[in-house]
Design goal:
This protein is an alpha/beta fold. The chain folds into 2 domains: about 200 residues, 3-Layer(aba) Sandwich (Rossmann fold); about 110 residues, no CATH class. About 45% of the residues lie in helices and about 15% in strands. The strands form 2 sheets. Strands 5-6-4-7-3-8-9-10 form an 8-stranded mixed β-sheet, with helices on both faces. The chain has a two-stranded antiparallel ribbon with strand order 1-2. A hairpin with a 5-residue loop joins strand 5 and strand 6. Helix 1 crosses helix 13, helix 5 crosses helix 8 and helix 6 packs antiparallel against helix 7. The radius of gyration is 20 Å and the shape is globular. The chain starts with 15 loop residues before the first strand and ends with a helix. Bound molecules: adenosine-5'-triphosphate (ATP) and magnesium ion.
Length: about 350
């Protein structure tokens, strides 16, 4: 029971550079949108929202692949009743199969497939550089309308590099100040990672970045000041840095919201990121705290299936259609049609 929709325009993706100064520019499946989902802090709801956004997109008729990129604590498969996936990223990373697409597992919805993390990935959290590059290359080759990547907590280089595969990855944050601090730290780390990657062949600029990062330390130096300092030795590089940051558009998704105040606080956070990191964070909406999500977890299903009319499911639809502009691209769905989509989800649940 799916709705046929027209294809989406292709997103802007930047080339991925590895640490040894080699640019990996691999073929990107045409018109595939890649949305990495990260958050800094653990337990903010990254996996829950990846599963639900993915299922929501597939119910809207898109071909979706969910990749469990939480290499240290893979659990995305548990939302799809896969207790012990027969194939996973480790099947690919240990070269049992040549292509990432060969480990994809089907779900009852033909539009939705999974690349599971697998429980045997212990020790894979620190992927070698070669393995990471290969994984990224193969993620970019996946053929789907949307590829959503669930990432682990923290700012490991693997996580930063997969997150910055796209210019508009999603940062999931909860209302607690601790979560905001971690989300800020994560975005800051992506900014520095991107700058270092951009200037990897420019030693004087790389030195300035290193020096600034060390100095700024806990004081959180402004990236705008770093760019000015780069400009003192290399005005062209300064402009390139500015342009790169102007193109970087990470998204903020607020989860486990319990009061209006939590939503009101978003503006301050967005302003802070703009002022200190010269990065425009796009707020794409919120998902309320909802026990139905916990019930769904116990049943190993996304809440969109188990309780399609719940607050959480309604919010996920709103994020998809308003925050992420899926409706705009389609010129067909309005937020009010949540009820119609809830009916689709209810019908879908019979097949799971
Ligand atoms: N909106 C919500 N309402 C209620 N509970 C939620 C909500 N979102 C997530 N949870 C619960 O929070 C817990 C953590 O969620 P989840 O595992 O998705 O987080 P995560 O960010 O992927 O964690 P990790 O960093 O460990 O990978 C789970 O028990 C989940 O059911
Ligand atoms: Mg998780």
């Amino acid at each position: 029971m799916t709705v046929q929709l027209r294809p989406l325009p292709s997103p802007r993706l930047e080339p991925v550079a590895d640490d040894s100064n080699v640019i990996v520019l691999d073929t990107q499946a045409p018109s595939t949108v890649i949305w990495p989902v990260a958050g800094g802090k653990g337990g903010t709801g990254k996996s829950t929202l990846t599963a639900n956004l993915g299922l929501g997109l597939s119910l809207l008729g898109y071909k979706v692949i969910l990749v469990d990129g939480d290499l240290g604590g893979a659990d995305l498969h548990l939302f799809f009743n896969q207790v012990s996936p027969p194939r996973s990223l480790s099947t690919f990373l240990t070269r049992e199969v040549d292509e990432l697409r060969d480990v994809l597992l089907p779900t009852p919805n033909e539009n939705l497939r999974l690349a599971c993390g697998g429980s045997e990935l212990v020790g894979m959290a620190n992927l070698s550089h070669g393995a990471k590059t290969k994984l990224i290359r193969h993620i970019r080759k996946l053929d789907a309308d949307f590829v959503l990547i669930d990432l682990g907590a923290g700012s490991a280089y693997n996580t930063l590099d997969i997150f910055t595969l796209a210019e508009d990855g999603i940062v999931v944050c909860t209302p607690e100040p601790q979560a905001r601090v971690d989300a800020y730290g994560f975005i800051k780390n992506t900014v520095y990672r991107k700058l270092r990657r951009l200037f990897r062949k420019n030693d004087p600029v790389t030195d300035v970045i290193g020096e600034f990062a060390r100095e700024a330390g806990r004081r959180s130096g402004r990236v705008a000041d770093l760019l000015l300092r780069i400009g003192e030795i290399d005005p062209v590089a300064m402009e390139e840095g500015r342009q790169m940051l102007a193109d970087y558009r990470p998204r903020l998704l607020l989860n486990r919201v319990r009061s209006r105040r939590h939503i009101d606080e978003v503006d301050r956070f967005v302003t802070l990121v703009r002022e200190y990191l010269s990065t425009e964070l796009e707020y794409i909406g919120y998902v309320r705290n909802d026990d139905k999500i916990l019930d769904a977890c116990e049943r190993r299903r996304p809440v969109m299936l188990t309780s399609p009319k719940s607050a959480a499911a309604t919010d996920v639809y709103n994020v998809l259609m308003n925050g992420l502009d899926v409706s705009d691209r389609l010129h067909r769905f309005e937020a009010k049609q949540h009820r119609k989509l809830a009916q689709v989800a209810k019908a879908e649940a019979k097949f799971w």
